[in-house]
Amino acid sequence: xxxxxxxxxxxxxxxxxxxxxxxxxxxxxxxxxxxxxxxxxxxxxxxxxxxxxxxxxxxxxxxxxxxxxxxxxxxxxxxxxxxxxxxxxxxxxxxxxxxxxxxxxxxxxxxxxxxxxxxxxxxxxxxxxxxxxxxxxxxxxxxxxxxxxxxxxxxxxxxxxxxxxxxxxxxxxxxxxxxxxxxxxxxxxxxxxxxxxxxxxxxxxxxxxxxxxxxxxxxxxxxxxxxxxxxxxxxxxxxxxxxxxxxxxxxxxxxxxxxxxxxxxxxxxxxxxxxxxxxxxxxxxxxxxxxxxxxxxxxxxxxxxxxxxxxxxxxxxxxxxxxxxxxxxxxxxxxxxxxxxxxxxxxxxxxxxxxxxxxxxxxxxx
Length: 366
What we know:
Blueprint: E1 8-14, H1 21-27, E2 34-39, H2 46-50, E3 57-59, H3 66-75, E4 81-84, E5 89-90, H4 93-105, E6 112-121, E7 127-138, E8 144-146, E9 152-154, E10 159-161, E11 166-168, H5 178-188, H6 195-207, H7 211-223, H8 229-245, H9 249-258, H10 267-279, H11 283-295, E12 306-307, H12 314-325, H13 329-342, H14 347-360
Parallel strand pairs: 1-2, 1-4, 2-3, 6-10, 6-11
Antiparallel strand pairs: 4-7, 5-11, 6-7, 7-12, 8-9
């Protein structure tokens, strides 16, 4: 209804973002009524660039605590709702238009709006990895950020699951050791790690290929019996990856299967099992799990990390491989064609098509 449009503060924490900040702020045009920028110690042109967009620029001395910096930024907001982004995030044109419509129509009783966060794309531009984040929150609720590293916004109340997407466009310029150093410093002080800290510390160790230490902390996390179910499932996948790298096949299988303790089978883990048996040349077992992946119903509004390929084309492509190995060429061709619907220009899919048409004596089909 006209005249009922909500007012929005965009709150961001930044540091040395001269290469990305303008792109981000250009992409939000027409959404925020005020822009609050908290700088945690830039030594480049970030603040100079930001002055073209807002005069609400504040300095915050970095204390190895992301939640503290974000809470400070939120404290400077003055409008109805707060939106947060990182400097390497953007709204695509279509998402910005949708957000502008939401701004005019949002029920003022709504406390939280969550949005898909698109984190990775393939060479064809299709989303390969995504999750959900609480993005827009009512300022009067005084929601707080929690956690020095991998902070999260603690929310409650009326929640809207939106399909407006935030797109991450990383530049590879991040300080990749920063988070690990914060955890190591906290550990050296003897500070207690929450289950969530154990999980994210293990992730940092995993990302730095410290597999033995990552295994230790993922297992410590799972042994607490606490934490978010999506983190438990993800920890099982990361443990399987670690044991795979270490050549411990039995342990790899153990933790793929352990994921089923926490939720119904996910396509990602069915594909893991399919790949496990494919490597072992156990093609019937491999086909079973890949086929199951194709039959699962994709969760709606899932909050956990989602590998889109496992819910779409990968199991079909791998079923093509399995059925070819089993001499079931018609089935192999059928599943390759299903993969081709998702990946019409994929060289591997096109190679399979040509090969199987030769095997089956088919004339080339479009």
